[in-house]
Amino acid sequence: MLLTLPIIQAEPLAPPTPARPRKPDWLRVKLPIGPDYAAVRKLVDEHKLHTICESGNCPNMGECWGADTATFMILGNVCTRSCSFCAVATGRPSELDLDEPRRVAEAISLMKVKHAVLTSVNRDELKDRGASVWRDTVVFTKELSPETTIETLIPDVKANWAALDVMISGGQEVISHNMETVGSLYRLVRPQGKYDRSLEQIRRTKLQGHRTKSGIMLGLGEKQDEVHQAMDDLVANGLDILTLGQYLQPTKRHLEVAEFIHPDTFAAYREEGLRRGLKYVESGPLVRSSYHAERHVNVPI
């Protein structure tokens, strides 16, 4: 007697998940060392100071602190935006701290910082986007540390040009606003930002006679011709200094790295940017917005 077994239909196999690119050797970071770094480290620990260098796990912290450069984040630590590359918390920020400019200025003086970079979260809920705090932080820092040079890495003011005028009026030496990516990726990377609006913000800053700077992350899926187009757009809107660095995924909830860009490609982008009219290009896998920021103060423009 024959035994008939039921026919079981096999489920089709799911397509294999593409392997994530492995982090290459050129992204290895040297441990922070040196007496200048150690001195700043001691001040930060003793006085419980906060820097974005630490909270952002910046790979260049040791090198920058060794050059007496540090980056401070103002206007709190909760952002009203939800950019898909950024690990800063998103939500409803707390009340505006009007005493913050004085405390930041005192911290910069205490740390004996030669070049300070100030950045912030977006505060879209504020009528002036936090512009008065920006201005006061620069003014107080100049009063306490007149020899300290300052770069302000300012957010998108959502076309509030009156707020921009206040934000850039404190006497800082460099004013930076990061594009972050190429135009075609804006909806993915900066869903609440607009490519043309950020270009306009840079243009208006330059028209007031300031030294202008911006930064772009690579490795998000951009094409070479799109990077070149972004350079042309930035030059056309008055940009002086551009930084190009490798995007690194901060957590599994954020955008994955599409590609690790080779150092030779970064070097080629640097030369291309200079050829297209930028005054200075900082380009490399570990470059961040404030990397070698102390050098950008004296770039001939």
Can you tell me about this structure?
The N and C termini lie far apart (95 Å). The strands form 2 sheets. Strands 1-4-5-6-7-8-9 form a 7-stranded parallel sheet. Helix 10 links the parallel strand 8 and strand 9. It is 34% helix and 14% strand. It has 301 residues and is of the alpha/beta class. It has a single domain, classed as TIM Barrel (Alpha-Beta Barrel). Helix 4 runs parallel beside helix 5 and helix 5 runs parallel beside helix 6.
Topology:
Layout: H1 35-46, H2 52-55, H3 61-66, E1 69-74, E2 78-79, E3 89-90, H4 100-110, E4 115-120, H5 131-144, E5 149-153, H6 161-167, E6 174-176, H7 186-189, H8 195-207, E7 211-218, H9 224-236, E8 241-246, H10 263-275, E9 280-283, H11 293-296
Parallel strand pairs: 1-4, 2-3, 4-5, 5-6, 6-7, 7-8, 8-9
Helix pairs in contact: 4-5, 5-6
**Overall shape:** globular
- Residue ranges: pLDDT <50 for 5 or more in a row? 1-10
Overall mean pLDDT score? 84
Judging by the overall fold, what is the CATH architecture? Alpha-Beta Barrel
Query: In DSSP terms, counting alpha (H) and pi (I) runs of 4 or more, how many helices?
Result: 11
Whole-number total of structural domains: 1
The amount of beta strand, in percent, is 5-15%
Tell me which oligomeric state these chains represent.
single chain
What's the number of extended β-strand segments? 9
Per the CATH scheme, the topology name is TIM Barrel
Keywords:
301 residues; disordered N terminus; seven-stranded parallel β-sheet; TIM Barrel; alpha/beta; two-stranded parallel sheet
